[in-house]
Design brief:
Layout lengths: L10 H10 L20 E6 L17 E8 L6 E7 L5 E8 L6 E7 L2 E7 L12 E9 L9 E12 L5 E2 L5 E5 L11 E2 L6 E3 L6 E5 L5 E8 L4 E10 L1 E5 L6 E9 L2 E9 L2
Parallel strand pairs: 11-18
Antiparallel strand pairs: 1-2, 2-7, 3-6, 3-8, 4-7, 5-6, 8-9, 8-10, 12-13, 13-16, 14-15, 14-17, 17-18
Length: about 270
């Protein structure tokens, strides 16, 4: 990121960002979070040897899960993103940067968020195709019955740049973890681009039309931005439906559309 505004990406930009990380200007209103489903970054569950390993399909209390962030973006020169976990389910115990060629790296944790930025300007080293960027260790909690069994680890607010300063559009997948004693196996599915799933009107006060032309789904789920399940619609074989959002709280929600071998997501702003 060009923090100094001089049009050049160098180590000074990293120092400026580090100096002002977490600061806010008066009356500053943060931009809404952006969850981009697609290619560029991906999340992986990394098995942990030993008896404390978390089973993603049946997570028990006081178990360890490791989540790895990798990149398949050719020509990636610098990247910034936020990894989000729900602190009702997890405690973040450690975060490790795994790219040895990084000249500038900035990282902080705040609640259930890991902020990460890498700038490779001093060495000119490009992130190798498929290279690991970060590994985060999580420790599971005992959750109350009032919480849903399912939670997600997600990446949001992704920005990537090339060596010439131009931006690389990047997206990511999501990881599902299931807490409880009777969780169905989770099979990874192909992520469709968010443009393939349409929601209108958006913002919405009540009913919305959901369209995924030619992509028959099995179910639709709505989540708040902390990963809590708000509602589920089981309507297999459809690619269009009217959904009633009137019972959902105001604010941003995520609509997750699950097909037999694909999954798509769209954000919708619920207003009153």
């Amino acid at each position: 990121m060009d923090a100094t505004g001089d049009g050049v990406l160098d180590s000074l930009d990293g120092l400026v960002v580090q100096s002002f990380l977490g600061e806010r200007t008066p009356h500053y209103v943060p931009l809404p979070d952006v969850y981009s489903i697609g290619d560029g970054l991906w999340l992986e569950h990394v098995p942990v040897p030993g008896g404390l390993a978390a089973n993603p399909n049946n997570v028990q209390p006081d178990r360890i899960a490791r989540v790895r962030v990798r990149s398949n973006a050719a020509g990636l020169f610098g990247v910034a993103f936020e990894m989000e976990v729900d602190t009702n389910y997890w405690t973040i115990t450690s975060v490790n940067m795994t790219h040895a060629g990084v000249a500038q790296r900035l990282m902080q944790t705040r609640g259930g968020i890991v902020d990460m930025a890498m700038v490779l300007t001093d060495t000119g080293t490009l992130v190798v195709l498929g290279n690991n960027l970060m590994i985060t260790s999580l420790r599971s909690k005992a959750i109350p019955d009032s919480l849903p069994d399912t939670t997600f680890v997600r990446i949001k607010n992704i920005r990537g740049i090339r060596a010439d300063g131009s931006e690389i559009p990047l997206g990511s997948n999501e990881l599902r973890y299931c807490f409880g004693g009777d969780c169905p196996p989770y099979v990874g599915t192909a992520e469709v681009r968010h443009e393939a799933v349409a929601v209108f009107p958006n913002p919405a006060q009540g009913r919305v039309m959901l369209l995924a032309p030619g992509l028959a789904w099995d179910r639709v789920e709505s989540f708040d931005l902390r990963g809590r399940l708000l509602h589920r619609w089981d309507e297999p074989g459809r690619d269009a439906a009217t959904l009633d959002l009137s019972g959902m709280p105001p604010g941003w929600a995520l609509l997750r559309v699950q097909g037999r071998d694909w999954v798509g997501m769209q954000r919708v702003l619920v207003v009153r």
